[in-house]
Design brief:
About 45% of the residues are buried. The protein has three domains: about 110 residues, Rossmann fold (3-Layer(aba) Sandwich), CATH 3.40.50.20; about 60 residues, Dna Ligase, domain 1; about 110 residues, D-amino Acid Aminotransferase, Chain A, domain 1 (2-Layer Sandwich). The protein is of the alpha+beta class. Helices cover about 35% and strands about 20% of the residues. The chain is globular and about 60 Å long. The strands form three sheets. Strands 8, 9, 10, 11, 12 and 13 form a six-stranded antiparallel β-sheet that branches. It has a four-stranded antiparallel β-sheet with strand order 4-7-5-6, with helices on one face. The chain has a three-stranded parallel β-sheet with strand order 2-1-3.
Length: about 300
């Protein structure tokens, strides 16, 4: 598709949403819309603040750029509605979105494909802590949230009880994950290609919500300070993960590299596009501008419609 053709597009950018990641999504959507408008597109921003799809239908757009995060926007629901009405959209499909949103299911698929991932257990009741046979410290996180919302680094049973109580207020289950110390890296995958690997050095105890979205709270080092063999192993793990989860067109894979082993923490099918986000930062290091990144995603969405 020629760049001139893209200038004629009427684009809807979805943002906001119903999840705990609403604030991040609003920033992501606004950044996307601003960039597209600056390059001549007719852009409508739609804040999905309730389960009402009518505004999307009324817009009659050529393509939808999905800037939502979390429940309803990232879990296959909005993707299914867009497909039902034959509206092309950016990002992964229904099944991939639903699978990746469930961190436990995604990890089960990783293990079935011989992809290393930290040991984990899912609990739905605080009483299950009594039978937890994992050594502290542990990560406690919602099984179905992103952006490090509701993530706790837990060092003992007392802290575990607090974490479970808090997480079950915002999620249906708790993913308990073994802490692995090593180099934290993030690997964006775009159309089956791994972009420059980013090393993350948070100021906080771990890469939490504050470290992710507050400027200056984490250092992003590109390329990551790893050996060539380690980078090769990490890139293979990221690609294997993307393929296993059926989302190799657009996904970010987070990994802890420990003693030469790339442990995949999770995948993200709608990575943030805020000024501090990892995916556009990595793309820039590869010579791909923010606008070019968006055009690649839009072209992919339109190509899928025409297949």
């Amino acid at each position: 598709m020629k760049k001139a053709d893209l200038k004629k597009l009427k684009i809807v950018v979805l943002k906001g949403g119903l999840s705990k990641e609403r604030g991040v999504s609003l920033v992501t959507g606004s950044a996307i819309a601003k960039e597209l408008r600056a390059n001549g597109h007719d852009v409508a921003e739609i804040d999905i603040n309730k389960r009402d799809f009518s505004a999307v239908l009324k817009a009659k757009s050529d393509v939808v750029v999905n800037g939502l995060h979390g429940t309803y926007g990232e879990d296959g629901i909005i993707q299914g509605m867009l497909e039902f009405y034959s509206i092309p959209y950016t990002g992964c499909g229904v099944l991939a979105s639903a699978l990746v949103m469930d961190k436990a299911k995604a990890k089960e698929i990783m293990l079935s494909n011989n992809i290393p991932t930290p040991a984990f257990k899912v609990i739905t009741d605080i009483k299950e802590l009594a039978g937890l046979k994992m050594k502290y410290p542990l990560y406690f996180k919602p099984v179905d949230n992103g952006s490090s919302v509701g993530v706790y680094l837990v060092k003992n049973l007392k802290e575990a009880k607090i974490a479970v109580n808090e997480i079950l207020k915002i999620g249906r289950a708790v993913l308990v994950e073994q802490l692995i110390k090593g180099t934290e890296i993030s690997l964006p995958v775009l159309n089956g290609r791994v972009l420059p690997v980013i090393e993350i050095v948070p100021q906080n105890e771990f890469y939490d919500y504050d470290a992710k979205y507050t400027a200056g709270k984490s250092a992003h080092i590109i390329p990551a300070r790893l050996s060539k063999p380690e980078l090769k192993k990490a890139s293979k793990a990221a690609l294997d993960t993307a393929r296993a989860l059926m989302c190799e067109e657009y996904v970010r894979v987070d990994i802890i590299m420990d003693k030469g082993v790339p442990y995949v923490l999770e995948a993200n099918t709608l990575p943030g596009m805020t000024p501090t986000s990892l995916f556009p930062e990595s793309a820039k290091a590869a010579g791909i501008s923010f606008y070019k990144l968006l055009t690649i995603l839009i072209e992919g969405a339109l190509k899928k419609k025409n297949v």
